[in-house]
Design goal:
By secondary structure, the protein is α+β, with helices and mostly antiparallel strands. The protein has three helices and seven strands; from the N terminus they run E-H-E-E-E-E-E-E-H-H. The radius of gyration is 15 Å and the shape is globular.
Length: 147
Amino acid sequence: MESIKRSTEVQAPIEEVYHQWTQLEDFPLFMKSLREVRRLDERRFYWRAERDGLLYEAIEEISLMIPNRRIAWRNVSGSENSGVVSFDYLESALTRVTLDLAYVPDSGWHDPFALAERIERTLDAFRDLVEPGGVMEELVTHNWRGF
């Protein structure tokens, strides 16, 4: 397996950052290629994404949740991958989010540089969603229920 690790700092309290990350059904708001995330049960989620014109489907299972600290998952169908997202308290309104993804290069993830860039863009978009004045605040302020 190969791995990629990237971080970003979010100007928001760790509790808010962690809470927003646990809202998996909202991931299409900040993950460009993701079309749908649907809860199947307490720990499993169906993911549907489109990348480079191809449709990808997978079932991800959350294997560990430590509130305000860490979430781990593994793919139980689709391309082989697993990961951990960690939340580190830096200040009262500053949190570091670190995503560590392990994957098999021949299982749908062919270009590690493109994948690393995609992870960086995803973390930046997540930060923009969560920070005050970001996308989520805009949606709530305008009572926007969809696109």
